[in-house]
Write a structure and sequence with these properties.
Length: 422
């Protein structure tokens, strides 16, 4: 006779084991990246079948209480929803779960993720908001932050949505400052903000990188290739080329499908072009005639004219470098623009410009660079050494082309290539 507490206790144990199976299923989804994607699909399907079989070992008559039925429906929906495509069956089970137990926060989380996949972003946000009404939760806050970034794409109020995304990401971190996933999510929010605001405010890039570094302190996150890819992306735009190369290489080793090896090739090709253009121009006899017009440039504002040789590493305030654009260096990424440039002292350097269209500056133009950010690049990669000097221009207000500010129509936004694990 099945009465008393024993059957209920056994039912709870079966549900607990099914919950562990579901967690393992998602761990494999997020950390297993074989070279052949079909291998991952096969493993997920095998684990899904096993988890569902475990759930099915609990017949309906053993799921008596509303709480047990809610957990059963939640786990079934969660297991079915592990794949990238939308599954209506998963949504149906998760919907039943939240109806049976509206306080089941994890079910609201899974339901939100599920309907997000079918493109119902407002519906997903409603699920996450309802879950948060039950109390603060770092997982919900992170998913809400991710969703808001997704909603910002192409939206008129994109700046407000990204601001909300950062706010919720920070709230998640404050709930558990040791949780690597929360830090990773904050890094993504800041990186998205950088691109959404026109790819010029490097303060947000530094904030992003700091968040990624905190995420890496969590051992759990070292299995997530997206963390290394996105951190490398931030380093690339900060022109920390060596760190970017190491980051993309690490991401490629963890997940060959990310395309991080292509990012490595792009950076190496770019570096070869930059250094090659420097060496070629140093040998050129055209410099003297090209630079004759630079001495005639008169600064209309307060910065004093300076040569690159006397700049300090980093930001040089109240200083302006006058240079002649010798060569536009073409490369595969949209931003920044790279130019081989030479100052009055015949010192060549690489000028990188953010937020402007390639038509804004042409070869032969005279450029005045206000408050220049100066770097000396000197590192090795795979046995090859790279050494050149660089000035970075983050704002259109920092550059004058032939004594004139860039035209408004030359402003441009960079596009975002960010990896987001679900």
């Amino acid at each position: 006779m099945m009465s008393g507490g024993e059957p209920s206790g056994e039912s709870d144990r079966v549900l607990a084991r099914a919950g562990e199976s579901a967690d393992e299923l998602y761990r494999v989804r997020d950390t297993f990246f074989p070279r052949d994607p079909a291998e991952k699909t096969c493993r997920l399907q095998t684990l899904t079948d096993a988890a569902l079989a475990l759930l099915d070992s609990l017949p309906p008559e053993r799921r008596k209480s509303p709480q047990q039925r809610a957990v059963y429906e939640f786990l079934r929906g969660k297991i079915l929803d592990v794949f990238a495509d939308y599954r209506k069956e998963a949504e149906d089970h998760l919907s039943k779960a939240v109806k049976l137990n509206p306080s089941l926060v994890d079910a609201w989380l899974c339901l939100g993720n599920c309907i997000w996949k079918k493109g119902d972003l407002p519906g997903a946000k409603n699920c996450f908001t309802l879950a948060l009404s039950k109390g603060p939760n770092k997982k919900i806050l992170c998913q809400l932050s991710m969703l808001e970034r997704s909603m910002a794409q192409g939206a008129e109020n994109h700046a407000l949505l990204v601001e909300e995304s950062i706010k919720h990401a920070k709230e998640a971190v404050m709930l558990d400052i040791k949780d690597g996933n929360s830090w990773y999510n904050l890094g993504n929010a800041c990186l998205t903000s950088f691109f959404m605001t026109g790819a010029w405010d490097h303060t947000t890039l530094h904030q992003s990188l700091k968040a990624y570094q905190n995420a890496e302190k969590d051992e759990m996150m070292k299995s997530y290739p997206d963390l290394y890819f996105n951190s490398a992306t931030a380093n690339k735009y900060l022109e920390n080329y060596e760190r970017a190369l190491h980051g993309f290489e690490a991401a490629a080793l963890k997940d060959p499908g990310l395309g991080a090896d292509e990012e490595v090739k792009k950076i190496v090709t770019l570096l070869d072009k930059l250094e090659g253009s420097m060496k070629e121009q140093v040998r050129s006899k055209r410099l003297t005639s090209l630079l004759s017009s630079l001495a005639e440039v008169n600064l209309k504002s307060s910065p004093k004219k300076s040569a690159i040789n006397v700049l300090s590493e980093g930001l040089n305030k109240a200083v302006a470098v006058v240079g002649k654009v010798l060569l536009f260096v073409k490369h595969d990424n949209i931003a920044p623009l790279y130019y081989l440039t030479c100052d009055l002292d015949k010192s060549c350097f690489i000028l990188s410009v953010y937020g402007l269209h390639s038509g804004a500056i042409k070869e032969g133009d005279c450029v005045t660079l206000v408050d220049p950010f100066y770097r000396v690049m000197n590192f090795s990669w795979k046995g090859k050494s790279y050494e050149f000097r660089s000035i970075r221009v983050d704002f259109a207000e920092q550059i004058f082309v032939n004594d004139k500010p860039p035209a408004p129509h030359h402003s441009v936004r960079a596009t975002l290539r960010l990896q987001n694990k679900s």
